[in-house]
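**Protein fold record**
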Amino acid sequence: MQLMKTRKKREKFDVVANVVVIFFAILNLFPLYWLFTSSLKNSSDVLKMPPDWWPATITFSNYTEVFQSQPALRWTFNSLFVAGVTTVFVVVASSMAAYAFSKLRFKGRNVLFIVFISSLMVPKEVMIVPLFRISQDLGLVNNLFGMIWPNVAAAFGVFLLKGFFDSAPDALREASRIDGAGEVRTFLQIMLPIVKPGIGALFILNFVQVWNDYLWQLVIGQDKNMKTLMVGVATLMQDLNPNFAYKMAGATVAAIPMLLIFILFQRYFTSGITIGAVKE
C-alpha cells in the first residue's frame, strides 16, 4: 500500500515536472518564433502595438533584399568555412593534446597542463592588439585563415577532452600495446572512439563559439566580401532609417546554420554533457 502511494506521488511529480519543463522550453523557443515571424512582416508591422503574433500579410521580400542588396551568400560561405575549418583543427589538436596529458607520462606534465589551462582566465580581448599585429605581419588581414589560426589552440577543448580520456581504462591502452599496436594506432583506433561523445560536444560548442566570434572577425575581415555572416548582419543595424523586418531576415539566416548543427550533433552533445552523471 505504501509502495502504491509512493508510486502515485512520483507519477504526479513527473507530470508536474514535465509541464514545467515544457513551459520553459516554449519560453526559450519564443524568441526564435518571434524572429522568424517578424522576418515575414513589413517593417511597420514589426513595431505595431499591440503586436501581431502571426503576420497579417506574409512576404519573403526581406530575404530577397538581403541576398540581392548584400553579399549574404559570400558572408554565409565565410562563416561556414571559418567555423567549420577552425572546429576541425580544434578537435584534432585538442584530442591529441588531451590524450598526451591524460595517458602519456613525461616530466612536468602536470605543471604544463596547469599553465596551459590557466590561459582560460585570460580574456581574448586582452590579446586583440598583439594578435592583430602578428596577423598583419603574416599577411593574414582580410584573409579567412587570419580568423582561423588564432582560435586553433583552444585550452577549453583540451580541458574537456582530457576528462573523457581520463575515464577511459588504461587496461585498453596496455592491451593494445601488448598486441603490437603503436601509440598512433592506439590513439586512433582504441582511445579516440571512446571519447566520441566528448568530440561531438566539443564540435558543437566550438562551432557556436567561432560562429559568434564577432570582435576578432570584425578586426580581421575589413573588406565587405571578407566579412562573416554575424559581422555582415550587424552592419545592417547601422542604417539611419532601419528596416527592422529586413534585419530580422538577416538574423534568421544567421541562426539557421546553428540550429542545423545542433540538430545533427544533438545525440553526441547530450551524451557528451551527461557522461559521468550516472555511476555504474
